[in-house]
Specification:
By secondary structure, the chain is α/β, with parallel strands linked by helices. The chain has a domain of 48 residues. Helices cover 40% and strands 21% of the residues. The strands form 2 sheets. It has a 6-stranded mixed β-sheet, with helices on both faces. A 4-stranded antiparallel β-sheet has the order 2-1-4-5, covered by helices on one side. The structure holds adenosine-5'-diphosphate and magnesium ion. Adenosine-5'-diphosphate binds next to strand 2 and helix 1.
Length: 294
């Protein structure tokens, strides 16, 4: 699906003393099959933006188009597009209301009017995709699960709808670091298999950087940076503007650069940074030698 955000402005409680501008003239495009991260400090407008993309809010000004159709319109066409956008909210427990995990995940597919065997197949597939054994978890009570398991169930419920666009708002909140890596790896595998668009909202820059190809950085309701992961992560000034800390590797390279080491600032992963330091060390030691990059 092609998503177009045009001059999007959103004011909460307009015309009241509590009025709050959450988005100011945002312009963005998302192509089919992209994996994108949206980062920025709390209150920067990330959640408001993704709710607009899911057609859940009406813009104060501007518009959001899903394959050319107004996202929030009350037409059958718009409704059909919205059904193809899956949004997982920040607090999964707010979305749980069935008595078993199976029924919880089956809820959406049932509303699509699928027959029971297709529903059961989708529920199993979705639970397996998020790393929960259907035999073990299918009969459990959703609200008695751990935070991390609940999050996986909520995600399975959305995957079972086979969305063409999947948006996750803080997908790893409540998960330990191993659980985080596991779920992000599963989401990446799912995206590669389906070719859907994956949008991850997070303030864990390091963590989503491994999954997405592009990062949009928000601050104060505006887009302050948008580009390939490398470019955004290796721009310490831009990160500062968004009140985010650069990955440790970038900090290290920057410190070496400040100490007159001729390092290049285009890597952020531990291995890339180590390789760049080794290359630079070689250059310093033997300035006339050919660089031995490999
Ligand atoms: N339902 C709401 N009513 C009033 N103000 C809101 C509401 N939701 C968010 N806001 C305000 O809008 C701004 C952007 O919030 P939000 O989109 O939730 O940002 P983020 O997800 O980046 O933390 C914040 O100032 C927030 O306080
Ligand atoms: Mg938010």
């Amino acid at each position: 699906m092609h998503i177009r955000v045009e001059n999007l402005t959103h004011v909460y409680a307009p015309g009241t003393p509590a009025a709050r501008t959450a988005l100011r003239g945002v312009n963005l495009e998302f192509g089919p099959g992209e994996r994108v991260g949206i980062v920025g400090p709390t209150g920067s407008g990330k959640s408001t933006l993704v709710q607009h993309i899911a057609g859940l809010l009406v813009p104060t000004a501007g518009r959001v188009l899903l394959d050319g159709v107004l996202a929030h319109a009350r037409t059958p066409e718009a409704r059909a597009r919205r059904h193809q956008v899956g949004l997982a909210f920040q607090f999964p427990e707010d979305q749980m209301f069935e008595l078993t995990v199976f029924r919880e995940v089956a809820f959406g597919p049932r509303h699509l009017g699928l027959d029971e065997s297709e529903i059961a197949a989708r529920v199993r597939w979705a639970l397996e995709t998020v790393g929960l054994d259907p035999e073990v978890f299918g009969g459990r009570v959703p609200l008695a699960l751990s935070g991390g398991e609940m999050r996986r169930v909520a995600l399975a419920g959305i995957l079972a709808l086979r969305p063409r666009v999947l948006i996750l708002d803080e997908p790893t909140a409540g998960l330990d670091p191993r659980g985080r890596e596991d779920i992000l790896e599963r989401l990446r595998a799912w995206q590669e298999e389906t070719g859907a668009t994956l949008i991850l909202v997070s303030h864990h820059l390091d963590e989503i950087a491994r999954v997405v190809g592009r990062v949009i950085m928000m601050a104060g309701g505006e887009v302050v940076n948008d580009g390939p992961v490398r470019q955004v992560l290796c721009d310490p000034e831009g990160l500062c503007r968004a009140n985010l800390s650069p990955p440790p590797g970038v900090v290290l390279l920057e410190a070496l650069g400040a100490a007159q080491w001729p390092v290049r600032m285009d890597g952020w992963g531990a291995e890339e940074v180590a390789a760049e330091i080794a290359r630079t060390w070689e250059r310093i030691r033997k300035p006339d030698a050919e660089p031995s990059g490999s």
